[in-house]
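(Fold this chain)
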Amino acid sequence: MAARTADPASSRTARLLRAGRSKVAKKLVEEAVEVAIDTMHGDSDAVVRESADLLYNLAVLWVAAGIHPKDVWMEMERRERLLGMAEKLPKERPDAPLRRKVVALDRSRVRKRR
């Protein structure tokens, strides 16, 4: 992305990239929430505008993370081959590596030892 070397004074993308991944990720989440809220309110025009912002911030996030869009499209194609459509894979897959599950304890239910 050419904006990586652009002047932050004149390029929003350059400013975001210079602010770091956490700032870029925060902007992405903000836009996703705005899309969801406008969808719930039935405001199609706002959904279109906010979706454009969401996609822009996703592209900036990919640049910040060193991800090329072709890698994302390859993953979509892989899912299409596995499932017949490019949908989200289930969380629990037989071929997925085993991961430890983190469980948060509800402090009100934990008994203190005396």
Observations:
- The chain has a mean pLDDT of 82.
